[in-house]
Write a structure and sequence with these properties.
Layout lengths: L1 H27 L6 H37 L5 H34 L1
Helix pairs in contact: 2-3
């Protein structure tokens, strides 16, 4: 599981670096922002908005389910562990999705 996460983070980092380098190259040549880049920026923003709108209720349901699972486990250790794991995973995923906004705003500030 951790290997997959690191793999996806590496891919995202590589594409981010390539994207930023492409923007600096076009800007340093005195060219205006290409139409493809502005289209990609708009697409990333709409994807980000869609993810946040979708992830917020999903994270709330997952955290609530995990807390209820812990509360009503009746002493079953497996259910308690599963509930804790569900809460941690939901919060981590939601924080990761919110961090997308920070990455995109950092890229925009560089442009």
């Amino acid at each position: 599981m951790k290997k997959k996460i690191y793999f996806y983070l590496k891919i995202i980092l590589i594409f981010t670096i390539l994207f930023v380098n492409f923007l600096f190259i076009t800007e340093s040549l005195g060219a205006s922002t290409p139409k493809l880049i502005s289209t990609l920026e708009k697409a990333f923003e709409s994807i980000e908005e869609w993810l946040i709108k979708l992830a917020t209720p999903m994270a709330a349901v997952a955290v609530g389910s995990g807390l209820f699972m812990q509360k009503f486990s009746l002493g079953d250790e497996e259910k308690i562990r599963t509930g804790k794991k569900l809460v941690k995973t939901a919060l981590f995923a939601y924080i990761f999705i919110l961090a997308i906004d920070l990455v995109l705003s950092a890229i925009e500030s560089l442009i």
